[in-house]
Amino acid sequence: DGSRFRRVESGTDERLTDIYGLISDLFWICGVDGWTDGTVFLEYEKGVIRELTPESNMEYPPYYSSIWMNNPYRIYIASYSGYWIYDRLENKVTLQETESVWVGNTIRGNAANDVIAAGQGGEILHYNGMNWHLYTEIPEKVILPGSIWWMGSDILNDFIVISGIVSTYKTNSLIAIGRR
């Protein structure tokens, strides 16, 4: 009701990095704790948390770092090993073909054909429902393009905002604002 919080045990020791839901009784949580320490993908439904272990088309774990969805059956995932789509009915994650070569840290969207993702190396991607497009404009304007690490993002209609750091000899905060 917005006036009080309720503690919910996650059942994991992994570092939780993102949470997203559609209604108060149905949401998902993900987390990653380094490259080799593990990853977790949780579903909260009507007061019960369960760990999801989806089938993957890769031989190593995706290391989930961020999630977004606009329906409960197709969940978009940013991970240390790229960008994935989780099919809840089949309990399967599929690695997406993108031009990305860096770690994915954040993902948000307006609709299934309007998803924005960002990560290390200054990479920003957009999914139009069919293909992923990698934007290179921002990293090209920075002295050391690989030094940008996007950490958070949001999109609302035609307004996009992404936050992160530029890590060189001195770490600085960075905000990118985009409008269509």
Describe this structure in words.
The structure is a single chain. By secondary structure, the protein is mostly beta strands. It has one domain (16-179): Neuraminidase, CATH 2.120.10.30. The chain contains one helix and 16 strands. It has one helix spanning 137-140, and strands at 16-23, 26-32, 39-45, 48-51, 55-56, 64-71, 74-79, 82-87, 92-95, 104-111, 114-119, 124-127, 132-135, 148-156, 159-167, 171-179. The strands form four sheets. The protein has a five-stranded mixed beta sheet, with no helix packed on it. Strands 1-2-3-4 form a four-stranded antiparallel beta sheet, with no helix packed on it. A four-stranded antiparallel beta sheet has the order 10-11-12-13, with no helix packed on it. Strand 10 and strand 11 form a beta hairpin. 32% of the residues are buried. The model has no long low-confidence stretch (mean pLDDT 86).
Overall domain count: 1
**Low-confidence segments:** none
Radius of gyration: 16 Å
Distance between the termini: 34 Å
Report the β-strand fraction as a percent range.
over 45%
The CATH class assignment is Mainly Beta
CATH homologous superfamily identity: TolB, C-terminal domain
SS-derived structural category? mainly beta
| Cross-sheet strand order for the largest sheet | 5-9-8-7-6
List the keywords.
5-stranded mixed sheet, mainly beta, 180 residues, 2% helix, Neuraminidase
